[in-house]
Design brief:
Elements: H1 2-95
């Protein structure tokens, strides 16, 4: 009975040691998987953020260009109106001389 009990105890100790090693390996793999997943999520989130920023930047540039066009057209129309008035005045003055 003592011999059988020793073999059984040795088997239990070996099983416990193997289980502990397997648990450590599993925990390491799980931590590695979590690290890889976090890095992947950060990469994809960063890509999405950069894409959104590029879209917003392009939209802002389009709005700014349109606004510059409006401002330039107003300036052009004001100058043209002034030139037309000066020419009309010149023509009017030339009639009375």
């Amino acid at each position: 009975m003592g011999l059988n009990n020793g073999i059984c105890l040795r088997t239990q100790i070996q099983a416990a040691a193997r289980r502990f090693g397997a648990q450590l390996a599993f925990q390491r793999q799980r931590a590695a998987a979590a690290t890889i997943q976090a890095a992947w999520r950060a990469l994809t989130t960063g890509r999405a953020a950069r894409q959104q920023l590029a879209t917003q930047r392009a939209a802002a540039m389009a709005v700014q260009a349109a606004w510059r066009c409006v401002v330039q057209r107003r300036s052009y129309l004001a100058i043209r109106s002034a030139v037309v008035k000066v020419l009309m005045l010149k023509q009017w003055l030339s009639r009375w001389r």
